């Protein structure tokens, strides 16, 4: 399984667009891996996990053939993960021309919770020329497994917003050979996640962890302490072992570290730090 991190920053980007806090300025000076677009990852060549406001720049930077995209799996409906304008562009025939593809096959499959679906419906209703038939939205729920191409996605309940507001999801993903846990946006996970993973028998090659809070205590995002606890929990239930790679993701200016500072901090713990363009092959 191949996962490409297209964006590893939090909602405001890193450095944040309009910010002059010390770490944003240091990140701007450091450049390179310290420059993070909004959260997005590509599975193989044609499945996206989230499609945020930087998707056009990500296409340009990585030379992506997004016309060949088969599916987008949304974690939740926050704007940095589910960008409505990207849906407008994909759904408007004059903006997205795919020669040789019959109209009935010119369909992008979307997967997400009821809340992601509501946001999709809003995008469709507000796009003056958008064709709803260019999408097929599959509503999914926590504790449900579903198939996207060669992958099985296990939807797990995140701890990001109160469930009465939105049931946010993280995903355990497997192609039958290897498995990854893609865990943002979320604070510390509930014990029912351990229970589900224990029963699934999945053993992860990669665990990608929300660390937006940095060294601050976790809330609707994890921080360093919660990431270490998640690693311990996965070891305890047998979902990870010494071969598992643990990688911090969804980084923000709430912590006070540039990429190189994060790497120096995390390396002694055997934990890696994601950056835009990082490719993981499991
Ligand atoms: Zn986010
Ligand atoms: Zn800042
Ligand atoms: Zn969010």
Which structural category fits the helices and strands?
Answer: alpha/beta
In this entry the ligands are: zinc ion
Q: Which CATH class?
A: Alpha Beta
Average residue pLDDT: 97
Stretches with pLDDT under 50, minimum 5 residues: none
Assembly level: single chain
Rounded to an integer, what's the Rg over CA atoms? 18 Å
Main sheet strand line-up: 6-5-4-3-2-1-14
The overall strand count is 14
Order of helices and strands: EHEEHEHEHEEEEEHEHEHEE
The CATH topology is what?
Metallo-beta-lactamase, Chain A
Q: Give the CATH architecture.
A: 4-Layer Sandwich
Task: Say which CATH homologous superfamily is assigned.
Answer: Ribonuclease Z/Hydroxyacylglutathione hydrolase-like
Structure annotation, total helices: 7
**Which bin fits the share of residues in helices?**
10-25%
How much strand content do the residues show?
Answer: 15-25%
Structural account:
Helices cover 25% and strands 23% of the residues. β7 and β8 form a beta hairpin. The protein has a seven-stranded mixed β-sheet with strand order 6-5-4-3-2-1-14, covered by helices on one side. The protein has one domain: Ribonuclease Z/Hydroxyacylglutathione hydrolase-like (Metallo-beta-lactamase, Chain A), CATH 3.60.15.10. α3 packs across α4. By secondary structure, the protein is α/β, with parallel strands linked by helices. It is globular. It has seven helices and 14 strands. The protein binds zinc ion (3 copies). The site of one zinc ion has 6 residues, from loops.
């Amino acid at each position: 399984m191949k996962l490409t991190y297209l964006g590893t920053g939090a909602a405001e980007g890193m450095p944040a667009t309009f910010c002059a806090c010390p770490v944003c300025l240091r990140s701007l000076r450091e450049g390179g891996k310290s420059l993070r677009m909004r959260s997005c990852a590509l599975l193989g060549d044609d499945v996206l996990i989230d499609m945020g406001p930087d998707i056009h720049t990500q296409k340009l930077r990585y030379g992506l053939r997004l016309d060949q995209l088969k599916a987008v799996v949304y974690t939740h409906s926050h704007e940095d993960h589910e960008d409505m304008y990207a849906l407008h562009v994909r759904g408007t025939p004059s903006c997205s021309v795919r020669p040789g593809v019959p109209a009935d096959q010119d369909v992008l499959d979307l997967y997400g919770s009821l809340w992601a679906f509501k946001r999709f419906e809003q995008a469709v209703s507000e796009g003056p020329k958008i064709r709803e038939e260019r999408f097929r939205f599959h509503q999914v729920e926590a504790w449900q497994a579903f198939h996207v191409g060669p992958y099985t996605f296990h939807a797990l309940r995140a701890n990001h917003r109160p469930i009465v507001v939105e049931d946010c999801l993280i995903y355990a993903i497997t192609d039958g050979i290897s498995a990854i846990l893609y865990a943002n946006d979320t604070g510390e996970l509930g014990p029912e996640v351990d229970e589900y993973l224990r029963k699934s028998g999945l053993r992860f090659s990669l665990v990608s962890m929300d660390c937006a809070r940095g060294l601050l205590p976790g809330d609707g995002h994890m921080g360093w302490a919660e990431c270490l606890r998640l690693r311990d929990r996965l070891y305890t239930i047998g979902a990870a072992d010494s071969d598992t790679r643990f990688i911090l993701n969804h980084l923000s200016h709430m912590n006070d570290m540039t990429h190189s500072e994060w790497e120096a901090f995390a390396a002694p713990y055997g934990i890696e730090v994601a950056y835009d363009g990082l490719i993981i092959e499991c």
